[in-house]
Amino acid sequence: MTGRSRRGVKFTHKHSHPNGQSAADGRRSSFSDVSEEGSPTKSRGSGTLDNIAEKPRTAEQQRSDYEKKKANFMTRTFWTFVMIGGFFAALFMGHVYIILIITAVQIISFKEVIAIANVPSRARDLRSTKSLNWYFLATTMYFLYGESVIYYFKHIVLVDKVLLPLATHHRFISFILYVFGFVFFVGSLKASHLKFQFAQFGWTHMALFLIVVQSHFIMNNIFEGMFWFFLPVSLVITNDIFAYICGITFGRTQLIKLSPKKTVEGFVGAWVMTVIFGVFFSAALGKSKYFVCPVTDLGANIFTGLQCEPNPVFLPRTFQLPELFFLPPNTTFSVTLAPIQIHTFVFATFASLIAPFGGFFASGLKRTFKIKDFGHSIPGHGGMTDRMDCQFIMGFFTYIYYHTFIAVHKVSLGQVMEIAITGLTDHEQVELIRGMGRYLGNQGLVSNEVRNCLSLIIRD
């Protein structure tokens, strides 16, 4: 019959734009172009054909898909081994190399996160936007790196004539640098781009907090001892591996809609396996002073090692278990282990039950902008952020937990020197040196010649 459409086929009309373009023309999505479900807002005028089966793929197309998957698998495998080899090489070469890796990771991750919210057409009109992003990154890194260096290396920074003024006024200098950027941002505002500029400003600060600030705490973990960097990283990687193995083995129940492949069974199974791995791995790692000692020599490596009095948390202790009501009276059990193994249970639990939500957060972010990966920094793996999304929050937690429950608070050489330099007058500093000279001489730690030489050199 005429005038009727065929069953199963809808015929719709596209609404024309006044300038002759279709309203359904595609364009790059921005903050305002994405629906809450993470997919582009569909135009009512877009034509659809329902219930029409796709043509079966030819043998040539299937062969082409197989070759692409094979090539991607080979690339992914190759770069996996490259990353593993590079990581362990840096780990054994010393703390400086790990710090360089963390620096590179945070810069690349910041670049990837900033890029996904960028709108090229507007960025071309506002060239200052990209420059401001990098300026705020440099300012933040200057502040955070300076804080770490001053805190852990006071005994070096505070005795240097050039570095002393920078260390004394570090926070004020950092604040002024940020204020310059803020003033420049306000001065560059344009009435026709206000929404985009403020969105970029907020997006940049979110990236600075989630990536750069959390990376700063990971670096502080390295200064406290390589153990506090390597163990959390290992727990997150182990959990990721066992989540995949347990998920494909007996996973049935979907865990979260943001990551459809994640299952409750894989989530719980990975937690159990990560705890078991962590308890034994922390005991083995805690026996090496290279890993447990705080950084006192940036030139140290796995072969030279470090020397220190280990934190009591690494020393084995015997724990007496309480009597159980269903056992005969006076029946007791004891277990010998290092307290760090108990703390590792907490670390492993956080790495298994909380840290994965950093990955879920990243998945939601990618869905919002309709992208598969944050970038292509690592061939076969996607972006750097795709590999580090769980590590940032894990490192942050490790820092907080360590300084709350594990760190031994005692006066350090750097703290004493800071008090003497900033809190004593020149005359008092001279008297302090004389008094220390007499004390060391009386203890037999320095000769009388050295003590007399100090008395001659130091004058009021």
Quick summary of this structure?
Residues 52-65 have a biased composition (Basic and acidic residues). The protein has helices spanning 59-93, 95-116, 120-125, 127-152, 154-157, 163-168, 170-187, 194-224, 227-250, 264-285, 289-292, 339-353, 356-368, 384-388, 391-406, 413-423, 426-442, 448-457; strands spanning 254-256, 259-263, 317-320, 334-337. The strands form two sheets. Strands 1-2 form a two-stranded antiparallel ribbon.
Structure, described:
With 460 residues, the chain is mainly alpha-helical. The protein is built from 18 helices and four strands. The strands form two sheets. The protein has a two-stranded antiparallel sheet. The longest helix is centred in the N-terminal third of the chain and has 35 residues. The chain starts with 58 loop residues before the first helix and ends with a helix. The N terminus is likely disordered.
